[in-house]
Design goal:
Distance between the termini: 173 Å
Number of domains: 2
């Protein structure tokens, strides 16, 4: 029997060694899970719309303020209830105190008349009122302490609500500023993108603005260069001479026609093609022509 049990113990797995192997694996899986969570969160924040996230933050702040107001209202309500209990206890204390005094007076009057039965009854009633008076006085003291604490808690709750309301108002005002900055950022991003498209290639088949400008300026410069070469060539000078000769022949022919018709030649037709040479100036000491 002992041998059988011994073999059974020997056949059990080594749980201690397995636990040592599982613990590092569990830590690695836990670390990997946290890494994946952080990665997903980072990717989500990068892709999320800041405007929607801002509205979510404002909504959460408003909900938190609402919950704080509800808690403060509960604290203030507790203070009010404590004060009402204290007022009732004070009224009860005054009433019981008056009854105790009245019972003592009536017992004293019964003693003067020699009615011992009534003396005993009034005395017993006065003792009962005295016991009740002691209990109410203790309750009043407790309620006073409780009312003081609840009053302080109420003041703190009111201050907390006021501070949170001020902070919420600042967040609401800052939301408008952030939304304006977000719109400006989006507009500036569009402007930057448009400016970048003027100096960067949009696609494989679309030239850039700089490339098109360089191509046009190259063609314009080449055309200007060819024009200057044409203006200074021999062929262009020959064309100018031929054109001038044709113009002179036309002027001569027009003068003949005017003469045949007996018309006075026009000043432009009679004028020579070139200006007459200036008369020679006399030498120093010589008289000019008479």
């Amino acid at each position: 029997m002992r041998l059988t049990l011994r073999r059974g113990y020997d056949s059990l797995p080594d749980l201690t060694g397995r636990a040592d192997r599982v613990s590092p694996m569990f830590k690695a899986l836990k670390r990997w899970w946290k890494y994946l969570g952080a990665k997903v969160n980072s990717g989500f924040n990068a892709q999320a719309d800041p405007k929607i996230q801002l509205e979510q933050a404002i909504t959460e702040a408003q909900d938190q303020h609402r919950r704080l107001r509800e808690q403060a209202a509960n604290v203030i309500a507790n203070q009010k209830q404590t004060e009402m209990r204290l007022d009732r206890a004070m009224e009860e204390l005054e009433k019981v105190s008056g009854n105790a005094r009245q019972a003592v007076i009536m017992a004293d009057e019964a003693a003067k008349t020699g009615d011992q039965a009534k003396v005993g009854e009034y005395t017993s009633a006065a003792e009962s009122f005295a016991n009740r008076l002691i209990a109410i006085e203790s309750e009043v003291e407790d309620l006073k302490q409780l009312a003081l604490g609840s009053s302080q808690a109420s003041d703190q709750a009111k201050a907390a609500v006021q501070q949170n309301a001020t902070a919420l108002q600042r967040k609401l005002a800052e939301r408008n500023k952030l939304l304006s900055q977000l719109d400006q950022a989006k507009m500036q991003e569009q402007v930057n993108k448009a400016m970048a498209s003027l100096s960067e290639t949009v696609g494989e088949d679309v030239p850039t603005f700089d490339e098109v400008r360089e191509k046009i300026e190259g063609r314009y410069a080449k055309a200007k260069g060819m024009s200057e070469l044409t203006e200074t060539s021999v062929e262009s000078r020959m064309l100018e001479v031929e054109q001038a000769a044709a113009n002179n022949e036309a002027h001569t022919r027009l003068a003949q026609i005017r003469a045949q018709l007996g018309l006075t030649p026009a000043a432009t037709d009679a004028a020579p093609a070139t200006e007459p040479a200036a008369a020679p100036q006399p030498a120093p000491g010589e008289a000019g022509p008479a």
